[in-house]
Every structure is written in structure tokens, then in C-alpha cells.
Amino acid sequence: MKEEEKNTVNRAEEFLQVFKKGAEFTQELLKENERLRYQIFQLEEGSKKQSGPLSADAELLRRRVEELEQEKKEILERVLRVEEENDDFAQRYVEVETQNNMLANLYIASFQLHSTLDHREVLQIITEIVINLIGAEEFSVLVLDEKARKLQAVAAEGLELTEIPAVPVGEGIIGQAAKSGESYFIDHMEGYVRDLSNPLVCIPLKIKDHVIGVLVIYQLLSQKDRFADLDYELFTLLAGHAATAIFSSKLYSESERKLSTIQGFIDLMTK
Fold first, then answer.
1. Is pLDDT above 60 for 81?
2. In the chain, N or C terminus with fewer CB closer than 10 Å?
């Protein structure tokens, strides 16, 4: 836990202790108040029986009660302020915990993306991240064919690859996202019906300014009705890290095939 987080937790505990002590002191004041009120009542009753004015002791007790009432009021105000500050620290503590969880998830996702150079494994890891961390039910990963200038589906969840049409760069929402390098998010998710040409989200996968593909989300899980802050962080991560992982694994696979072909040719020539 970071030093700032420890300080936040310690201050929250200190305020809790102050709150408890304030509550205990308030209870003592209330008891003392009641005791003094009872004494004043007895003195007033005795004074009435004697048909005379209140004694000096009764007046002294009355003033003491008023002082205690004022002290009680001040303590209650302090207790309320402490409660408000305690709620604020508790909220900040929850926010820190949420940020820690978010950073942990981002680190794990980034580590997994760069843990292999196998092209199929990289696509599988991206699929798992989108399912488990973002909560998407139907989506696809399309990679750019530089020669044809078209985006071709290479991985999908909830759909068959054959269902996803190739998209020319610059055509429709998906093609425009690939051309501009800008992410697309639908304005209103309520009542949305899956449309392959009009997705919920389209995230360009790019290395610097060069787009190598897109992540397209068509449907979220039923229990997820909106995107959280972590989702947008994951989208940013996928835009860069997933693109690098896909590009590197693709180059590695191609080099492995070329080496295998060359090795086969050499073996043939040496026989």
C-alpha cells in the first residue's frame, strides 16, 4: 500500500477514535445533565413548599445546567463534523481501492498480451480480456489487409467469423475508425439492437499513428448496462498494446514460416 493510502487509512482511524470519544463524552454530559435537572427539580419543589424564592444553590445548579447544555450542543456539532469528515475519508479510501484494482487489472492484461509471440495465443488473450474485464458478449477483432485496404475478421466471440463481412478502409463506422484512428462509442445504449455495421464500440488498434486493425463490440453482457472507467482504460491499453502484440506475433509467425521453408529447401539441396 502506498504511503498516501496509509496516511488516508490512519487519518480515517483517528477520526473514528475521536468520534467514539466524543460520543462517550456526550453520554456522560447527558447523564450529568439529567442528574442536575433532578436536583433542581427537588430544590424547586422544596422552595415551593417554603413559599420562597429559589435558593442560591438552585440558581447555581441552573446556571451549571445551561453551561452543560451549551457544551453538549458544541460537542454534538463537533461530532457531526467528524462524521462528515469520516464519510469523506471512507469515500476516498474506496476510491483508492478501486484505483488499485484497476491498475492491477491493467497490469495483468498488459503482461498477458506480451507473454507470447504465438499469433493465435495473442488473439485468444485479447478475447479473454474483452470478455472478462470489459464484459462484452459479442465482438470481433479485424486486422487490416494492407494490399486490399480492407479489414478482415481474425477473431470473434458470439459470432462466426464467416458472419462478419470485410470492411474497406473509410467505409461506414468501422472503416472510418480505421482511417481516422479515432475510437467510436455509440451515443445511447438503451434499446440498442446488434448491427454489424453500426456497433456499440469500435477501437482502432494502432502502433503510434499506424492502424493495424480494430476491435468492434456489438453486444455487452446482460448484467452490464454501461461502461466503467476501467473499460475506457482497457480500451486505451488495447489500442496500443494489443496492436503491438498482434503485429509482433504476426511478424514472428511469418518469419517462422520463412525459416521453415528455407530450412526445408536447404535439407532438400543437401540430400
1. yes
2. C
